[in-house]
Amino acid sequence: MWIDTHCHLDAAEFCGDQARYADAAAQQDVAWIVIPAVERGNFARVAAIAAAQPNCTYALGIHPIFVPDAKEADLLALRQAIILALKDPLFVAIGEIGLDFFVPGLGEGALREKQEYFYMEQLKLAREFDLPVLLHVRRSQDIVLKHLRRIKVTGGIAHAFNGSFQQAQAFIGLNFKLGFGGAMTFMRALQIRRLAAQLPLDALVLETDAPDMSPAWLHPQKNVPAQIPQIAAVLADLRGIPLQHLAEVTTTNARTALPRLALLN
């Protein structure tokens, strides 16, 4: 079995046809799909999709790209949503949160300060409720790590990891798993492929980030969670290990990173 640890199944690209895509993933032995929220406006939507699909779970958080339009009241709403969601076994993490210094303007001045503020406040919520986090880390690894060292959380997943070996070891040392997906399937992605091949196997989890981060054979078409086994086959080949072994280890890793997910059948 497989777990897609990061999939935006609520996105408009899926045209309200989430059931079909979730079922197609299930047919490929994708036992669980984790759907992270990105803003206050879709907290209820990700929860509703998870409730409607037998292989979906969800996380709640405010994505850094949505921070420019976010308000202080959104953090209060997130806290209240978390309190209610703790009663729901399908709620597994705080996310998607983090920092994005790649998008022009977001990594500068007041917007950077606001990003860091929202990131820190959400880390505090994760610490308060003893929940793992799903991290967005784009050209911001060292600053994300700086705040993680100061505001210690139980762990989680650094989604779409694309840092250095040293940064990878720092995340691992803070009890984080590292997410690998479609980017790893491109032959020119030399650094990501080296990381995927050489990092400790017990630190790796699989993801699609669907509808984004399409693998090489789909690009530029949208990504879908049913692609997980084929993406996994690339990772198994890079590491020279049987695909079934990779399935077992990455499933265990995902459950370790997301303890509430581990409680689900």
Automatic annotation (TrEMBL):
Alphabetical UniProt keywords: Hydrolase, Metal-binding
InterPro entries linked to this entry: DNase_TatD-rel_CS, Metal_Hydrolase, TatD-like
Pfam families associated with the record: TatD_DNase
Residue positions binding a divalent metal cation 1: 6, 8, 96, 209
Keyword Metal-binding tagged: yes
UniProt binding sites for a divalent metal cation 2: 136, 159
EC nos: 3.1.21.-
N-terminal signal peptide: none
Molecular-function GO terms, alphabetical: hydrolase activity, acting on ester bonds; metal ion binding
PANTHER family xref list: D-AMINOACYL-TRNA DEACYLASE
Family: Belongs to the metallo-dependent hydrolases superfamily. TatD-type hydrolase family.
Protein name: TatD DNase family protein
Source organism of this protein record: Glaciimonas immobilis
